[in-house]
Amino acid sequence: MRKPILTFLVLLLTTGLMAQSKNDRAAILSILDRQTADWNAGNIDSFMNGYLESDSLMFVGKNGVTYGYQNTYQNYLKRYPDRATMGTLKFTILNLSFPGKDVAFLVGKWHLTRPQAGDVGGHYTLLWRKIKGKWVIVCDHTS
């Protein structure tokens, strides 16, 4: 009698974890879709809503490490001062995993189509944390 009960409990827990991952995956992909739309509308203010609004936010790019939400925001404004330099963003997700409770790790490709300024692109990794029920990017490494 113990074996069927144990099997049932394992299946119940596994199913619950998979459902959680599906919901979390959908939430993260929804944030990325919204960020893409915000970027393509020229709205960096709204694009930033996917990031942790804290001094502990870390952005790693070709110029090194930037700490803090405000510094990251200012760097976006400086690098992309107008629609021509912003171009049209496309994200391609290569891998999204959940290495721990309330932690997600995403690897992807980005591409900006910019007819006037020339296309650019590269890869990125995002470390996400679920804080107070909301997924936010706590570290972005884009190259």
TrEMBL record:
Domain of life from the UniProt record: Bacteria
Pfam family, one: DUF4440
Keywords for the protein's UniProt record, in alphabetical order: Signal
Signal peptide annotation: 1-19
InterPro entries reported in the protein's UniProt record: DUF4440 (IPR027843), NTF2-like_dom_sf (IPR032710)
Domain DUF4440, first and last residues per copy: 28-137
SUPFAM superfamilies (UniProt xref): NTF2-like (SSF54427)
Protein name: DUF4440 domain-containing protein
